[in-house]
Design goal:
- This is Hydroxymethylglutaryl-CoA lyase.
- With 273 residues, this protein is α/β, with parallel strands linked by helices.
- 43% of the residues lie in helices and 17% in strands.
- Strands 1, 2, 3, 4, 5, 6, 7 and 8 form an eight-stranded mixed sheet that branches.
């Protein structure tokens, strides 16, 4: 929703997210505690949260934050289990995305992790530009590994490699996961892929075969990162991901009827797309 210009009414957001909670996903990225000037679409996250009924779902909630102030706000809600923060391996993109230098962002990660530990939350760090950098900043698999080592030293337990601009290819994805997963067994690695209809399957398969079992997705593949200024590359479509996982024989605890209802509702919610 974050990149849409037309504001989606709070009641509509809440109803859509409530339907997603009925599906049975492990985690639902439901909103963001960020500046309303930066992301006006998500200025009602607190109101949306207040309207959700969590009594009949096993799904845990994740909120994205962009700084310590947002983390403090998100951590104050007992309903939220995860805080997500985008740490970029690109100085340029860190400034564009959270208006911070890399040293500032790294300091925030340490402070947010300590906050989460004290509040019974878990910090999820997204390594933005994890598969390449269009801005001319340094990038290499070794650099990604260095960032991961720093996060591991802090005690971070979930790291999602993020293909912010759709630059990932199987040739980049597979070696990174094959190197990182055995090197940091204490970390659960995820794949946050921005894909096209022609690239999603090969990229998902490369991550899966390299050992990744945590994937982010969105119904219909809608969305992307508005700070990356790329409107052609969307999120990984949930329906595609589920179909792929079924071919791999993965046991999925998904309520298919609820999922179909969520798909139908999403077509109404995102009609302006």
């Amino acid at each position: 929703m974050q990149g849409l210009a037309d504001f989606i009414p709070t009641a509509t957001k809440t109803a859509y997210l409530q339907q997603l909670l009925a599906v049975g996903f492990d985690v639902l990225d439901f909103g963001s505690f960020v500046s309303p000037k930066a992301i006006p679409q998500l200025r009602d996250t607190a109101e949306v949260l207040a309207g959700l009924d969590l009594s009949r779902t096993r799904t845990k909630l994740l909120a994205i934050v962009a700084n310590q102030r947002g983390a403090e706000q998100a951590a104050s809600y007992p309903e939220i289990s995860y805080l997500g923060f985008p740490l970029s391996v690109s100085e340029t993109f860190q400034r564009r995305n959270t208006n911070q230098t890399l040293p500032q962002a790294r300091a925030d990660v340490a402070a947010m992790h300590a906050l989460c530990e004290s509040r019974g939350k878990t910090l999820v760090v997204y390594l933005s530009m994890g598969f390449g950098n269009p801005y001319g900043d340094p990038w290499s698999p070794a650099l990604v590994a260095d960032f991961t080592a720093e996060l591991a030293a802090l005690g971070i337990r979930i790291v999602a490699l993020s293909d912010t601009i759709g630059a990932a290819t199987p040739a980049l994805i597979a070696p990174l996961f094959k190197e990182l997963i055995p090197a940091f067994p204490q970390i659960e690695f995820g794949a946050h892929l921005h894909t096209t209809p022609t690239t999603w399957q090969a990229n998902v398969q490369a991550a899966y075969e390299a050992g990744c079992r945590r994937f982010d997705s969105a119904l219909g593949g809608i969305g992307g990162c508005p700070m990356a200024a790329d409107t052609l590359t969307g999120n990984l479509a949930t329906e595609n991901l589920l179909a792929f996982l079924e071919t791999q024989g993965e046991p999925l605890s998904i309520d298919k009827a609820a999922f179909q209802q969520a798909q139908a509702l999403s077509q109404q919610v995102f009609v302006t797309c």
